[in-house]
Design a protein that fits this description.
- The structure holds 2 protein chains of 2 kinds.
- Helices cover about 60% and strands about 15% of the residues of chain A.
- By secondary structure, chain A is of the alpha+beta class.
- In chain A, a hairpin with a 3-residue loop joins strand 12 and strand 13.
- Chain A starts with a helix and ends in an 8-residue tail after the last strand.
- Chain B is α+β, with helices and mostly antiparallel strands.
- The chains are: A alpha+beta, B alpha+beta.
- Chains A and B meet through helix 1 of A and strand 14 of B.
Amino acid sequence: MADTPESSAISSIKYLQQENQRLSEQVKQLVKTEATLYEFQEKLDSQLRIYRKLYDVGQQFNATFDIDQILTVMANFIIYELNFERCLILFNNTSEDDSAFTVKLCDGYYDETYETVRSLKLDAHHPVISKLLTSNKCVICSEDYQSEELLQLCSRIHMDEYMIFSIEYITQKRIGLVIVGNTSAMFPYQVRIQPNSEYNLGLANLVAQATAALYSADSYRELLQKSIFLQQTLEELQQAQFQLIQQEKMSSLGRLVAGVAHEINNPVNFIHGNLFHLQDYLQKLFNFVHIYQTHYPNPDPEIQAEVDETELEFLEEDLAKILTSMKTGTERIREIVLSLRNFSRMDEATLKEVDIHDGIDSTLMMLEHFLKAQPERPAIKIMRNYTKLPLVECYAGQLNQVFMNILANAIDALENVNAKRTVQEINDNLSQITIQTSLVNEEWVEILISDNGCGIPENVKKQIFDPFFTTKPVGKGTGIGLWLSHQIIVEKHNGEIKVNSTLGKGTEFLIKIPVRHSSKTK
Amino acid sequence: MGTQVGVGISHHRHPDTAGKMAVEQALLQAAVERPDFVLMFATVGYNQQALINSVRSATHRAPLIGCSGEGVITLGEADESNFSVAVMIICSDELHWHHGVTTGLKEDATQVGTNVGQAIKAQFAPDARSLFLLADGLTFNFDKFIQGLNHQLLNEYPLPVFGGLSADNLAFKQTYQYYDDQVISDGVVWAILSGQVRLAWAINHGCVPIGNKRIITRCDGNIIYEIDHKPAVDILQEYLTPNEIDHWEKAILNLCLGFKAPEDMQNRDEYVIRFIPNKDDETKSIQIQTEVTVGTEVWMTRRDHEKIKCGIQQMAMDITTQLGNAVPKFILQFDCSGRGKMVFRDHLKIDLLNDFQKQVGPNVPWLGLYTLGEIGPIGLRNCFHDYTAVVVAVY
């Protein structure tokens, strides 16, 4: 039977309805497939984002050897990128007997628990930590997997779920714990701790990278410390070598000075000693001439002519003056010789009890040429404010060297000031060096040497005792005088040397040395 | 002085620090020390009271309204994490703000609308330009609320209403509204903007219907019990994967209801879209944010990438046409949380936002919120929207 138009239309409608229903079901399937795809895409995007960030973190780790910075980067990643609420990093110094882990960094504690957690100590023998360190796997305390031991730790670290990773070096030098977790109040807003979470891999990667970075940082620090130690040793060796050379030079110079002084001393003593005899003999000769003149007032004309020619009266008068002058000269030579011997103190290379004032005076004597008046300026005034001091046990020759260096520098400073002043200005404010000694207590003496020169700028003052530091022109200063003085006072005598200076007013050097060499009480 | 506006954002996890950082940025951008008015949007990972305390302290206790959202939007940034706070500070001698708060939406939304209307009317300024509203996204019933508000205020003093509904990052448990020092729930915070300014705005949604037309066969107010004589929840589940059924909060951001748009709105879009903030597994009913009647035609709808993209372009064109050569003083954006990371992968979302902001106001202080519902006028009618973006520029 052929289809009527109505039945055809009905079957078409029926077909279309079925088709519509089928399409409708397909749409539902498509919607579900799209949703599933989007879920996967979201998950992949999230993982990719974490891997990218992990790469960035790796770069940051590689760029630093600063342990605090490495830990901060790690904590920031855990809280801001992985989105866990809290992070706790603890370390245990295995070289110490105390086996407790102490907190090195805690982040995400924004309430009163912060102070408690900061001072937290976890015993390395705690069952959870022991298990972690022996198994070398992370420990997870999630909401649905909690043992008594794991729960016990919750209250101490103020987390209701957590994961613990260990940081261990191959060398076992450093052991650390990284604890990551959440409080239950923040569960809805944070990434949860779950045994099979994809975040766990990210965390494990992060801890592994941080461990490598910390190992590098520790190794670098160790190398750096060794390098600094070697550098210091090298510098000390160089200084010691230089000091030895310098001491040898000074010793040679001392021997030379002492030799010269000795060689001069004998002939001078010979001359000086004979001058009295010479004066006596001459006096007798003149007495004899006077007697002769009394008894023979009118001598032979030839004799009278010779008397007139000789100017006998003047000769007698002047000869006395010459002899006095010669005596003064030989006295002066004897004093200089004594000062040279005193200064070189070759006979006192070992510790001896000496009068400090003798050393200062000898040094001043050596420098007298520089102190006395010059055509362009009056003499530099020396003020000696000495206090009665006990004999001081010291290396006298070396101590004199210190006085020499300081006084010579003071004279240079005063010369520099005078070079810039008018005669009137120089006369109005005369150059002066003051030497003051005092007894600090029974064990210490103090020597203060000050000048009214130009003073020392602050930046120079900081380096004044550094070896080879000098402000003098090339060829005039070596930069070793004050360094050596510092070594002699501090290293050789266990004393102190300080410099105080005010620009435009002057400089003072304060030396403190013990009366007994073994004394170290200041 | 004119108007100085600045926006700051922070993701710091510490609420004290985050609030302070955001305000400091905003003050710096505005180049002012003390604001007249503060708008604040934040996400719910923070202790809300600690956060508001921090912002209030840093803004010298200037009047403030705001709410929690699924995320915050600023220039070049659309963050949907649990830890974001964005602050807009305004200092002006030409704009004036009058703000307030009312609670009790769940109990009687109409009464809340009436109360808001009364409060505004008491201090209504003749140069009032618009009403900004931020309401609890879980308890808000727009139809009832607007009924009270229209009756008390808007029928007499018509004003465009803009705003959004607060959210709690897909937890659907508790959302927050901010009013000065207070953090409340189940409430409405509002601010009337008055002064010699104008507003340009644009509204667009990006949903398309899927499948056949369906009919609501049993409902009460804003609760739908049955569609096509089947429990409403069962109907929705036909379109959902098992994972989506387990994570309902994600499912309902993907799937929404479309109703035929009223005649006067048909030229904009054929459908108005409704989000489903609540379901009841016992009665297998669902709740929407407007009233519905038996016999109403309904379509299952989903977001459509292409439609959203084209819609954003259209919005940019609409606003720039209204602005002409004027430069906005600031821009507010209320964007549905279902249009963010739920639809677009991160880089695509940012690219779209950047492109939009570049066209509308590349250097304009910009503050936005991912909401659970949007409010914005279409023609002369203040409307409630879902899966929609409402953008308003003040110039």
